[in-house]
């Protein structure tokens, strides 16, 4: 049984971007980070970016799968509607 106050996001990560940003495409969250995909730097940047965007401490976000892939699944301790609203309100 899944926690109704928890959401698993499907994420596609784009490392070495010119700036950190995000966009939704076909239900998948694309996140561009300036960090390279080396020694977990991009993963850390994704966690920090989303934690700031969602107003959560980074320790509350956790990878469910895909830590070594660009396609990832990340658990966020918020209901899906709250995640969508907070990310939609964040300026790009």
Rg to the nearest angstrom? Answer: 12 Å
Q: Look at the helices and sheets and give the structural class.
A: alpha+beta
Helix content: 25-40%
Summarize the biggest pleated sheet: 5 strands, mixed
| Named CATH topology | Conserved Hypothetical Protein Mth637, Chain: A
State which percent range the strand residues make up: 25-35%
| Helical stretch tally | 2
User: What is the mean predicted local confidence, pLDDT?
Assistant: 93
Q: Name the helix and strand elements from N-terminus to C-terminus, one letter apiece.
A: EEEHEEH
- Name the CATH homologous superfamily: YggU-like
The CATH architecture comes to 2-Layer Sandwich
| Low-confidence segments | none
CATH class: Alpha Beta
Briefly characterize the structure.
The model has no long low-confidence stretch (mean pLDDT about 95). This protein has helices at about 40-55, 80-90, and strands at about 5-15, 20-25, 30, 60-65, 70-75. It is built from two helices and five strands.
What does this structure look like?
The chain starts with 6 loop residues before the first strand and ends with a helix. The protein contains 2 helices and 5 strands, in the order βββαββα. It has one domain (7-89): 2-Layer Sandwich (Conserved Hypothetical Protein Mth637, Chain: A), CATH 3.30.1200.10. The chain is 26% helix and 30% strand. Strands 2-3-1-5-4 form a 5-stranded mixed beta sheet. A hairpin with a 5-residue loop joins β4 and β5. It has helices spanning 41-54, 80-89; strands spanning 7-14, 21-25, 28-32, 62-65, 71-76. It is α+β, with helices and mostly antiparallel strands and 92 residues long. The mean pLDDT is 93.
């Amino acid at each position: 049984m899944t926690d109704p106050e928890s959401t698993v996001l499907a994420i596609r990560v784009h490392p070495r971007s010119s700036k950190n940003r995000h966009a939704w495409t076909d239900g998948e969250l694309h996140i561009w980070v300036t960090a390279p995909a080396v020694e977990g730097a991009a993963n850390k940047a994704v966690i920090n970016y989303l934690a700031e965007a969602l107003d959560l401490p980074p320790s509350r976000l956790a990878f469910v799968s895909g830590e070594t892939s660009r396609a990832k699944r990340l658990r966020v301790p918020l209901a899906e509607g709250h995640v969508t609203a907070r990310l939609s309100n964040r300026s790009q």
